[in-house]
Amino acid sequence: MRVSHAICIGGGIGLLKPAPGTWAAAVAVAAGLVLHGLGSFPLLLAATLAACALGLWAAREELKLRPHADPPEFVIDEIAGQWIALSFPSCGFWLMGLDSWNFPYPGWLAAFLFFRLFDIWKPGPIGRLDRREDWVGLMADDLLAGVFAGVATMIAAGIAHGVLM
Asked: What would the mean pLDDT of 99-118 be, rounded to a whole number?
């Protein structure tokens, strides 16, 4: 197996059925919580940037011969996008000085649910990126869904803590 293919399928996570994208996002949340625990936001950010860069490289390599494909088993985009979404509350907890192993519920759950919502729904610019049907679109729609999810998570936290509590 080529390294680029192993990266695209998330080390095998993309072969899980049904809904490989949801499995990948769930595993990414678990791994993201461990990364946050080990090195807080800076380590999660470094891993996120690495996943984005490696994902773009691997997707380009794998789609050279089939440029319009978006194989369901390619889940590196979900992993990177989910880590982007998780980075928003991670950064907030880091800036607050919380212990790195303290990633309060429901921050991680909200990041997961919002990411899956935006990844499936694909509103506005996310949908336009998805319709590119190339290696950039394969990655970029999920990266932007991660940004939308991260912002939505922080808005929800602000409402929950500022209005409801």
From this structure: 96
CA–CA separation, 3 and 54 (whole Å): 10
Extract the tokens encoding 82. Answer: 């989910």
- Give the model confidence (pLDDT) of 57-79 as tens digits: 999 999 998 888 889 999 999 99
Joined tokens for residue 38: 């080990």
On the 0-12 / 13-18 / 19+ scale of CB atoms within 10 A, 118 is buried
Q: Tokens representing 140?
A: 């970029």
Residue 122, pLDDT > 80, answer yes
As given in the structure block, the two tokens for residue 87 are: 């980075």
CA–CA gap between residue 92 and residue 41 (Å, rounded): 9
| Of 95, 100, 112, 91, residue with least CA distance to 45 | 91
| Cβ–Cβ < 8 Å for 93, 33 | no
Residues 6+ apart with CB under 8 A from 45: 87, 90, 91
CA pair distance 39, 43, nearest whole angstrom: 5
Which burial class, exposed, middle or buried, applies to 116 when counting CB atoms under 10 A from its CB (0-12, 13-18, 19+)? buried
